[in-house]
Amino acid sequence: MPNYESYNIRLHILSPVHIGSGQELDPFSYVIRNNKLLIIDLGKWIENYSDKETLYQKMDSEDYIDLRNYIAKNFNDDNAVLSTIDVKSSEVVRTYKKAVYDKTSRHQALINFMTRNEITKIPYLPGSSIKGAIRTAIANRFVLSAHIKSGDSYNYNNKIFGKPTNDPMKNLKISDVSLDDFGTVIYEAREHSPKDKKTPKDSYEAAVSFCQKDTPVVYPLKMSLNPFALHGETVDTKFLIDCLHRFYMPKFIEEYEKFYKDESYEEIRQAIAPLNMEALRLKTNEAFIRIGHFSHVECVTLDNVRKPKTRMKDGKPMQWGKTRTLANGIYPFGWVKLEFLGLESVQRDKEQWPFPLQEIENIIQAKKESIIKAEKATEIAAKHAREAEEKRLAEEKQKAELEAMSPEERDIATANDPEITEKQVFELYSRIDDISEENRTKLAMALKTYWEDNKKWEKKKGKKTRGILKQIDRVQKIKNILREVK
């Protein structure tokens, strides 16, 4: 009987990961508000929408551009929101606005969606994708012993693993990894090349990563392995980790040297500094792997026999490996780290890293300081926004209360307002003889308080100007109303 050993693994998402469901969202399935993408239940919104007559007219017109414009402007039903995803690309927002508000636009504004649990609707990383990345690394280890040739690059399975009915990889089981409710964001995919300009591609939902947050993004992963023999080797956990490290780490280093090392790519170098630091600190119970879309040809094909199919140009296949596709033009897609708990954990032998430690530490420290500064600025802006909102609400409440009052009550409320102006005080004083006796007393008391607070109640010594004499008369009149002793 199989003797499976279970392992608890921490899956560290180091850079954005997109594993697609094959589903694309269009602006009939989502709206973007305040840099948040709201996935909507269009049927539920239509069912609850008040102005159905206008909506049905839009739907019957078959003008889909006008219809999505109408949906974008009028959707306001929280009960019809299925999920909310942060949008981390200004280009995605710009494309969406152009697609729904510019009636001359023919842009579809499609969003490539992640795999999701059908019941909870929470995105997840399929265990099959992780297992596929592990399978490639193991296969690469046996290219020579299995006598794999260049022509076998797309048909190596039988030579390495045998017939599909007896595939030894069935001895390895990997669980799916469920992400958090807010474990994904929307990025723009952009092509990067040392020679070419950055070319936008499409928009993608991808897992939140360490590169983006500058704090670890870690999920539990379950793995079961029944060690098996393959070409004279025993594939156990130690062998598996070694295969992963031997295969993926050279790809990681090569990609940095080829695409990101140049000092002109400062923005990219700053963005991936946390990723490089993780590589520098890698332990013997850890390994980098690459999963999902945009993993690039080097990480999904075998060394020495790699012969990918490319587009033809002038009758010849185009060269491969000349570009990278990056999230927002700065984050490489697909890098994760597997940390096997319970195994010996010591620092790996010093590698020939192309990135100096001091440079990375400086970048990371600068990023931390920038993040702290940005957080403080955000906090201050949020405080100001709260205060402005509180003031607006208070003013609206005060306005509503004033509108519900009689003119006399309104005058008294104005007189008691701490922000009353001197001009308003004189206007109220001029009307004091025209109001009821009860309210006249209240208004007189409010005017007295104002003049006391502004040191205009008591007589002043010295020369009496015309203005001072007028104020003395006003005070005396108020005292008479209040029946105060002269």
Shape: elongated
Number of helices: 15
Q: How many whole angstroms does the radius of gyration measure?
A: 35 Å
The proportion of strand residues reads 15-25%
Low-confidence stretches: none
Mean pLDDT: 87
Question: Roughly what percent helix?
Answer: 40-55%
Q: Please count the beta strands (DSSP E, at least 2 residues each).
A: 20
Helix/strand/pairing category: alpha+beta
Sheet of most strands = 9 strands, mixed
Write structural notes for this entry.
There is one protein chain. By secondary structure, the chain is an alpha+beta fold. Among the domains are: 5-26 and 110-310 and 318-355, no CATH class; 407-481, no CATH class. The protein is 41% helix and 20% strand. The chain is built from 15 helices and 20 strands. The protein has helices spanning 42-48, 52-60, 64-74, 90-101, 127-141, 157-161, 210-213, 237-260, 266-271, 273-280, 357-403, 407-415, 422-430, 437-453, 466-481, and strands spanning 5-13, 20-25, 30-33, 36-40, 81-87, 111-114, 124-125, 172-174, 177-178, 184-192, 199-207, 218-225, 228-230, 233-235, 286-290, 312-313, 316-317, 324-327, 331-332, 335-340. Strands 2, 3, 4, 5, 6, 10, 11, 18 and 19 form a 9-stranded mixed sheet that branches. It has a 5-stranded antiparallel sheet with strand order 8-12-1-20-15. A two-stranded antiparallel ribbon has the order 7-9. Strand 16 and strand 17 form a beta hairpin. Helix 5 crosses helix 8 (237-260), helix 10 packs across helix 11 (357-403) and helix 12 runs parallel beside helix 14. It is elongated and about 115 Å long.
